[in-house]
Amino acid sequence: MSTVNSSNTNHLWFLLMGFPGAEDFNNINAWISLPLCSLYLLSILGNCLILFIVKLDNHLREPMYLLLSMLATTDLCLTFATLPSTISVFLFDSRRNHFFACLTQLFVIHMLCAVESSILVAMAFDRYVAICKPLQYVSILHPIISKIGLVALMRCLCLHFAVPFLLKILPYCDKHVLSFAFCYHTDVMKLACAGTTITSTYNLVVVITTYPVDAVFILLSYIMILRNILNRPQQAERLKALNTCVSHLCAVMLFYIPLISLSLASRYGQKDSVLLPVVLGGILLVVPPAINPMIYSIKTKQICSALSKRFWPTKQDN
């Protein structure tokens, strides 16, 4: 069995897959491409609409909506990172992806997922300040909001910077078939012929220092929020405070449930069953960017009001 070493990767191509076994069914990829294209379209239109509304409406310059803009930007970038290869596989049956394009894609995907996790932490802190220290909300968050975004980006860039270089130095065997319609770190690493202890360990360190740490901070924020809410005498105040957290909690669940499920399926699932990880990977990267704008548009009164004024103005608005 021949191998391709790091000096020969200029001629290395990977073969992307859609759903395992889909090739046995006629036109199945065309049918799968319909909901995929719909979700991608929803993601692009929804996140662009959020950015458009926040930029044009002067009432939406609070830290909460600036963080929402960061989340929308991240989701938009994540959509464009996966869209070309996914659509190529399912719509045009074009599966070949060059090695360096694959490394770039997996770096961008993993980095943006970490950025999204960081922004969700910042949004949890935003809800904590808004509910527990409402009088200091603007004074605490407004001066540091841009720094939060910069720190989140730099943190994720630094953590993931070495990932493509560690994959590049590995030799790869004849089998260059990936399980997903996009390049995923563990999926590429499994194709290496040599030992992957260093790469695997580094990836584990990056994952542990990102998602579990972020999840703990989100959990602590909501513990303090719940303590504050439960100490309020009136039930109406409790419900009002809880209602301001619904959109963020939905975004957290949309992101973390597929992420945790994918991690468990990849590490502890049956080796001959790749369908579940493929489905979970698709849900993680496609569904949250499409659904998040809908959640915030429906559940956030200020966003709803801004959308109504912009697209369905009344005589009073004029």
Name the strands of the widest sheet in spatial order.
Answer: 1-4
Low-confidence parts: none
Helical percentage: over 70%
Give the class from helix and strand content and strand pairing.
Answer: mainly alpha
Question: How do the SSEs run, as a string of H and E?
Answer: EEHHEHHHHEHHHHHHH
Oligomer: single chain
Largest sheet: 2 strands, antiparallel
Total of DSSP H or I helical runs spanning 4+ residues: 13
Describe the structure.
With 318 residues, the chain is mainly α. The chain contains 13 helices and four strands. The protein has helices at residues 28-56, 63-92, 99-132, 137-141, 145-160, 163-168, 185-189, 197-208, 211-230, 235-243, 246-268, 275-299, 301-311, and strands at 3-4, 13-15, 96-98, 172-173. A two-stranded antiparallel sheet has the order 1-4. The protein has a two-stranded antiparallel ribbon with strand order 2-3. Helix 1 runs antiparallel to helix 2 and helix 3 packs antiparallel against helix 11. The relative contact order is 0.15.
Q: What characteristics describe this protein?
A:
318 residues, mainly alpha, two-stranded antiparallel sheet, globular
Q: Layout of SSEs?
A:
Layout (H helix, E strand, L loop, with lengths): L2 E2 L8 E3 L12 H29 L6 H30 L3 E3 H34 L4 H5 L3 H16 L2 H6 L3 E2 L11 H5 L7 H12 L2 H20 L4 H9 L2 H23 L6 H25 L1 H11 L7
Antiparallel strand pairs: 1-4, 2-3
Helix pairs in contact: 1-2, 1-12, 2-3, 2-12, 3-5, 3-9, 3-11, 11-12, 12-13
Describe the structure concisely for a colleague.
With about 325 residues, the chain is mostly helical.
